[in-house]
Amino acid sequence: MRVIVTGASGVLGSAVFAAFKAAGLDVLGLAHSRTKGELRKLDLLDASATKGVLSEFKPDWVIHCAAERRPDVAEKDPDATRKINVAVPETLATLSKELKFKLVYISTDYVFDGTSPPYTPSAATSPVNLYGITKRDGELAVLGVTGAQSIVLRVPVLYGPAEKNSDTAVNILLDVVTDQSGKTYKMDHYATRYPTNVLDIADFLVRLIQLPSGKVVPPIIHYSAEEPFTKYEMCLVFARILGLPHAHIVADAEPPKAGTVRPQNTQLYVHETQDLMEGSGGLGWNPFEEWWQVYLAKKQ
Ligand SMILES: NC(=O)c1ccc[n+]([C@@H]2O[C@H](COP(=O)([O-])OP(=O)(O)OC[C@H]3O[C@@H](n4cnc5c(N)ncnc54)[C@H](OP(=O)(O)O)[C@@H]3O)[C@@H](O)[C@H]2O)c1
Q1: Which of 58, 107, 216, 299 is the most buried (most CB within 10 A)?
Q2: Best of 65, 170, 288 to mutate for ligand 1, by most ligand atoms within 8 A of CB?
Q3: What's the CA gap between 131 and 184, in Å, rounded?
Q4: How many structural domains does the chain have?
Q5: What pLDDT score does 258 carry?
Q6: 108: enclosing H helix or E strand
Q7: Would you say the pTM of this structure is higher than 0.70?
Q8: Would 97 be classed as within a structural domain?
Q9: Which atom of ligand 1 is nearest to the CA of 66?
């Protein structure tokens, strides 16, 4: 099986690329500004270069992880965000039809407004910020290409191995916890998140593309860990693991008054995915605190 992973220099894509390699599949990882090692450089905004790479490699699957995933950056540059988050997935879906590969488009729980969780894959989308709107529009673009073989995989906030803590909205909380300089931080204790490990998603994707041919994968599927945390609660977990005081972090249970709007609770309903993966390892997510305990112990 031949697989292309876009965004293979990113937090999710690098884990997905490594997992497919470890599974012995023939995998090509694509990156843009952070191309290094075995990754190949490709600007996905260049549709003709993209077609060239895909025609040459002849993938059976393309796992499309590349995107602008930062809500604040998206708000500041809507045109650029639309190009990478909407036009690029549409191009890939068109190529999926023409070159006959299956496309997995990674989407987000931010396509929902967070007012009536949990959300099933068929629940009405209603994004509250530009990032969510562009990811929803990317979903519609991908699913709108008749004859393409596309799957939309929605995931919630990500964590896992990352070059820099600032690469994920969860890892960055480590910097807050370890800042014992006397600075105080107000920390979100309003929005409930379901932090999900990129290693677990990568392992799930390896199993997904190898499901027996009789299993029909629906066009939209959800993958999520099932432990709820506010960002403040994640900080308490990190403080406990690291044995650090946390009085400098103050819980803020009020809805944020400034900045990019974020939904309050976009819990993804995952039972359909559990049924799909029955006999193929289930969802297979790892508990948050246990994973961090092992990971941080190895880093020290
Ligand atoms: N992060 C989250 O918490 C979260 C939550 C839910 C869903 N998601 C979704 O999960 C997916 C992966 O997110 P992530 O956090 O792994 O993102 P990330 O770490 O920010 O990585 C983004 C990737 O996109 C690539 N990219 C950006 N513009 C490109 C272009 N013009 N041509 C080629 N590649 C380009 C980047 O390549 P270079 O860096 O090499 O330029 C990078 O590899 C995205 O679809 C995101 O919407 C993320």
Answers
A1: 107
A2: 65
A3: 29
A4: 1
A5: 83
A6: strand 102-108
A7: yes
A8: yes
A9: 24
Return d(Cα 205, Cα 168) in angstroms, integer.
20
Q: For atom 34 of ligand 1, which residue has the closest CA? A: 32
Is residue 131 among the annotated active site residues?
yes
Cβ density class 246-264: b for 16+ within 10 Å, e for less: bebbebbeeeeeeebbbbe
Q: Which residues pair with 185 in a beta bridge?
A: 249
The answer to whether residue 295 sits within a structural domain is no
CATH number at residue 207: 3.40.50.720
In the block, tokens 């993966």 appear at 277
| Interatomic CA distance for residues 219 and 190, integer angstroms | 32
223 neighbors 155 (Cβ within 8 angstroms): yes
| CA of 58 relative to ligand 1 center, distance in Å | 23
> Among residues 105, 119, 131, 159, which one is catalytic?
131
Does some domain include residue 92? yes
In a domain, 81, yes or no: yes
Residues 6+ apart with CB under 8 A from 160: 11, 15, 168, 171, 197, 198, 199
Task: Write the residue with the smallest CA distance to atom 26 of ligand 1.
Answer: 66
Q: Could you tell me the pLDDT band of residue 259, with boundaries at 50, 70 and 90?
A: confident
Q: What CA–CA distance (Å, rounded) separates 70 from 105?
A: 17
Contacts of 218 (CB under 8 A, 6+ apart): 121, 151, 272, 276
200 lines ligand 1 (CB under 6 A): no
In this prediction, residue 256 has a pLDDT band, given cuts at 50, 70 and 90, of confident
**Residue range(s) defining the domain that contains residue 202:** 2-159+197-225+267-286
